[in-house]
Amino acid sequence: MKANVKKFLEETFIELIENKVAIRLERKKIIKYGEGGVEKVSGFYNDEPKEFAVGMAKPQSEWLEVYAHEFCHFKQAREKVKVWTSNVSDKLDDWLEKKIMLTKSELRKVLNACKDVELDCEYRTVDMIRKYQLDNVINIERYCQKANCYVLYYNVVGIMKEWYKRPPYEFPELIDMMPKKLITNHKKRYRKFENGVIKKCY
Ligand SMILES: [Zn+2]
């Protein structure tokens, strides 16, 4: 393991431990999230109870990206940033699990709030990759493309009313459709991408 990666992991691990976060590094590629476990994700950070989880059964560059991203969710929660405290992901989970109904405009609000949280997190993640010079392991341009994929994926959740079977950032042809810098406006629609996700990820 490269020295800067080690330093990054050590420092972030200590921060998680000091904040009494349960750390779950699983020997899996995809892990389940949410009460009903409907969402299959590469990792997650949950604030109540505090839990940080990453699926580690993949190349280092890939789990490291997920690790950095989820760590930045932890930072959002700790800093109580507005986008995080709105608690939207729980609302989306409840809607996906059909526990609650949402009108079209309520759903749009929830999805936009999810995209706000994720995009804020992605900007933090890219800063962190730069700070620890993790670009000797992670390709930043490619990371930004995958991040854009994930943020814009929420538009598809609204259309399909279901979580993906396979994540869009696992399909190179979908990643290729994305800008190489983080998007600034997540309300812009990428229809070709959305159609590609519907075809491949469900
Ligand atoms: Zn996230």
Average of the residue pLDDT scores: 94
Distance between the termini: 36 Å
Query: What is the overall number of helices?
Result: 8
Question: How does the overall form come out from the CA principal axes?
Answer: globular
Label the structural class: mainly alpha
Largest sheet: 3 strands, mixed
Task: Please give a structural write-up.
It is a single chain. The protein has 202 residues and is mainly alpha-helical. It has one domain (58-201). The chain contains eight helices and five strands; from the N terminus they run αβββββααααααα. α5 packs antiparallel against α6 (140-160). It is globular. The site of zinc ion has 4 residues, from α2 and α5.
